[in-house]
Amino acid sequence: MQQDLARRAREGDHDAFSALVREVLGRLYTTARLILHDADRADDAVQDALIEAWRDIRGLRDLDRLDAWLHRLLVRSCYRVAKRERRRSVAEIPLMPFHDECGADAFPPFADRDEIERAFARLTQDQRTVLTLVYFADLSLIDTSTALGVPLGTTKSRLHNALAAFRAALAAGERVAELNGGVA
């Protein structure tokens, strides 16, 4: 179905392109949000990537590589948006009790997720990008290298280094929590 929509969109069918966008929009937005860590910048990046996709879809030769092509456009767009708007995001964290009446941790899934998000935020944009494309967007290493515009070996190296940095960030968070008496 996606290939048929892509073929029709390549021939200039606006409705087919709109249907194709509806199929991939959620994944593209989430990917951009993971890379940029900012909802507004993610919106801008996705919009820019989709505009570029509509302009350039006639040049798409291999319809089987549509996902990799769209992600490549998105990654480029994310990098442009990040370069254009060097600003820090602000997150408000509501104060919630960490322990229930029995003294047990009442929110372990939230604590784990928060720890993972903080570790992910410590990574560079390049590290977040490769991890997001491989583990969230579920692109193969070949498609990831296409999306990044780098050779396969470079993609493997970046993935290895990003995983090592992510593990180190998680370990650093655990050490800080231990020093603070279990509260990060």
Explain what the structure shows:
The chain is mainly alpha-helical and 184 residues long. It folds into two domains: 1-90, Rna Polymerase Sigma Factor, Chain: A (Orthogonal Bundle); 92-184, Orthogonal Bundle (Arc Repressor Mutant, subunit A), CATH 1.10.10. It is 71% helix and 0% strand. It contains eight helices and no strands. Helix 1 packs across helix 2 (14-36), helix 2 (14-36) crosses helix 4 (66-84) and helix 4 packs across helix 7. It is elongated and about 60 Å long. The protein starts with a helix and ends in a 5-residue tail after the last helix. Mean pLDDT is 84; it is low at 95-105.
Low-pLDDT regions: 95-105
**Which CATH class of the largest domain?**
Mainly Alpha
Mean pLDDT: 84
The helix/strand series, from N terminus to C terminus, equals HHHHHHHH
Proportion in β-strands: under 5%
- Approximate helicity band: over 70%
- What would the CATH topology of the largest domain be? Arc Repressor Mutant, subunit A
Tell me the major beta sheet.
none
Report the end-to-end length measured between terminal Cα atoms: 47 Å
Shape: elongated
Give the class from helix and strand content and strand pairing.
mainly alpha
The appropriate CATH architecture of the largest domain is Orthogonal Bundle
Number of strands: 0
Instruction: Evaluate the radius of gyration.
Output: 19 Å
CATH superfamily of the largest domain: Winged helix-like DNA-binding domain superfamily/Winged helix DNA-binding domain
Domain unit count? 2
Count of DSSP-assigned helices: 8
